[in-house]
């Protein structure tokens, strides 16, 4: 199971909207998906109440201690994707969610305040060595503001932006607000619209990134076990030589 977490200290940056949009985009791409709500504000549960369908489960888990065991149970049950929405700020629940994630998505609007607010989330993801990406959300269609914001995020992470800025950027459009209000995801509300296109594109970017991380982990495991085997052989060899010398 892949677990992705949407987290940032800044309120209103689009964590819940993106969680819903990505959940539906992944579902439409063939994944089994569950939305996990760790934010007592209840944006996802309220959205689900407005939705006249039970095809996408929103599961509230507000206690930090319940998150890890529940994710393990969901993984054991064969679920393919858990998307965890978190509250603004940095709570115990958010830290646990990031610690258990395969990818931490940090949404930011193209404003200095939003970009500065990514720092604490970034430090948690780094402390637990979890992969992370920024998502620039609610951007204008074009303009200098976007380039400035992208540059500032790269500085914040001290990394090449192509690695850490998810694509495409998500433009500010009414479709996102109207779909949230009607209990739909943007790809259901206006399937042929630009916002739906962007969210589907963002899901494809995330999917590729998750696959890359999974492949890297498999390779690391293989290298570690090969190194382990070589050490074992070398140790046996050294023991043989000691026995020969002693006799
Ligand atoms: N790309 C977008 N275009 C237009 N409106 C957007 C976009 N993304 C989010 N919004 C709107 O911005 C508002 C805040 O979004 P959302 O609730 O998803 O943020 P949040 O980070 O989850 O907030 P909180 O920190 O309070 O949980 C909502 O009204 C949402 O519909
Ligand atoms: Mg929210």
TrEMBL record:
UniProt cross-references to CDD domains, sorted A to Z: ParAB_family
Pfam families: CbiA
UniProt cross-references to InterPro entries, sorted A to Z: CobQ/CobB/MinD/ParA_Nub-bd_dom (IPR002586), DNA_Partitioning_ATPase (IPR050678), P-loop_NTPase (IPR027417)
Domain CobQ/CobB/MinD/ParA nucleotide binding: 4-142
SUPFAM superfamilies per UniProt: P-loop containing nucleoside triphosphate hydrolases
Name of the protein this chain belongs to: Chromosome partitioning protein ParA
Lineage: Bacteria, Pseudomonadati, Pseudomonadota, Alphaproteobacteria, Hyphomicrobiales
